[in-house]
Amino acid sequence: MKIVIIGSVAAGTSVAAKARRNTEEAEIVVYDQGKDISYSVCGIPYQIGGEVESIDELTPRNTAWFKKRYNVDIFTEHKVTKVNHETKTLEVLDVVTGETKEDSYDVLVLATGANPFTPPPFNQGAYNNVFQVRNIQDNRDITAYLSLKQPKKAVVVGSGFIGLEMTEQLVHKGMKVTLVEMQDQVMPPMDADMAFRVEEHLRAHGVRLLLSDTVKTIDGESSVKSVTTTKGETLEADVVFLSVGVRPNTKLAKQIGVEIGTTGAIAVNKKMQTNVPDVYAVGDVAESFSVITGKPIYRPLGSTANKMGRIAGDVITGGNLEHRGVLGTGIFRIFDLHVGQTGLTEKEAIQEGYEYETLYNLKPDHAEYLGGQELTIKALADRKTGLVLGAQVIGKGGVDKRVDVLATAITFGAKAEDLFHLDLAYAPPFATTKDPVLYTGMALDNAIKRNPLMTPTKILAAQEKGEAIQIIDTRSKKDYEKSHVKGAVHIPLGELRIRAEELDKEVPTVTYCNKGVTGNAAQNVLINHGFKEVYNLSGGNENYQSYVAMLDAIK
């Protein structure tokens, strides 16, 4: 059996390695049009910024290593230009010599990845100071340019993972950075109220944000001197970075009738097989599916690419591995702030038609007396089943731990009540006695069964509609006078039992404190006093004020 793999980064090399581990009988050949193999795309911003000393650290393996270790023939700078699946042959161009050869295969694996999208007007010319971060050659080119030109002003277009990571690193290198984003928030896959916290952090570090805006025109011929946005902002630019997403490289797949899925990537089954016999697709060119909904989704990440490659390599050589889907789990760092998410966001839950409960949980990541700092967890659970649907987590420590625990729990079908019973590691330097994950489960379960939550969105909507609602601020007078929810009356928790008679038991009531705990205690007091409909403001006044600030910023 001869296996030909087109593409040699995370997915392609994983196919080759797993296939070889399973059998010594197969001939395995890999073609890649680039110079480098098996490299870390995700590490490139950090090498450009100087956190990674050498590019060599991002390219630990070369073709000679693979040949010696796995007896796999990898041909770099060789581009497959045509596939004839009827004859199972390939045309391969040596991009260095210009020579073309023909090769054959029994099994074909498409690991052709994805190409960065170049938006207008940048697609209308070639500019020596406009870069995209996609491969090691990009890394070399960017590093050389920054070293030679020493740019002072940078424009970053797009605020996904790479855009934000590059923004961080350029600031570290002393540049003045303007970030332009077509959507009305950074990190568009997140919910706006969580992304706003990232936006505030960016501004606090000197980054200028232009949201709901795009680059319309470019001043400069071979080099960009400045750009002007659709809103009329003119930005001087010594260097420009484009980070507006990628598009699956499906050209070869379409040549031979491989089905393209609803996401625009290649449709595959759980064994990474396409609709064409003996043709597999893995990595950024292939779509995945959601663990929660079962629907196709496209989440091009190196971790997923490695899994897909291993599965295909196993199946091709007689194994029975299957892809089990993804949750879209991701994490990034922006200066000293860590931001992670897993599962469905609130806007995705709405799109999928879920009746859900939303919790904002503000807790220290570990004991405050040992330097614990606040985590903000936004978590969702299905009201009908109690299943945890997703979470977004922001903080300066412990974010990865909580996101991974929640991703694991969701993968195995945990309900909100199950989170509270997890036996998580505790010691003051690492966690609190009631870990933020445990509290998230407890509060979500309570919200579904007895103690409903009110989000800032809903309380403002109710007031906008003129609905009858009474809002109780249970904090100290000092805190109340500093800031409070619009329309709230001040009744400290210690006085609530005595003064409950001042309130109308028939009118929907919202209690709140600074972050949520005392508000929940007040909610219980009123429920036990016979109030018919009592909510706790999720995330308390702190979360409410953040939401109001977001609305003000949009205006």
UniProtKB/TrEMBL annotation:
Keyword Transit peptide among UniProt keywords: no
Listed name of the protein: Assimilatory nitrite reductase subunit
Task: Give the organism's phylogenetic lineage.
Answer: Bacteria, Bacillati, Bacillota, Bacilli, Lactobacillales
Arranged from A to Z, the UniProt key words for this protein are: FAD, Flavoprotein, Oxidation, Oxidoreductase, Redox-active center
Source organism's superkingdom?
Bacteria
Cofactor(s) essential for the protein = FAD
Q: Name one Pfam family in it.
A: Pyr_redox_2
Question: A GO molecular function for this record?
Answer: oxidoreductase activity
Q: Where is the Rhodanese domain?
A: 465-553
Q: Per its UniProt record, what InterPro entries does this chain match?
A: FAD-bd_OxRdtase (IPR050260), FAD/NAD-bd_sf (IPR036188), FAD/NAD-binding_dom (IPR023753), FAD/NAD-linked_Rdtase_dimer_sf (IPR016156), Pyr_nucl-diS_OxRdtase_dimer (IPR004099), Rhodanese-like_dom (IPR001763), Rhodanese-like_dom_sf (IPR036873)
Q: Family, per the entry?
A: Belongs to the class-III pyridine nucleotide-disulfide oxidoreductase family.
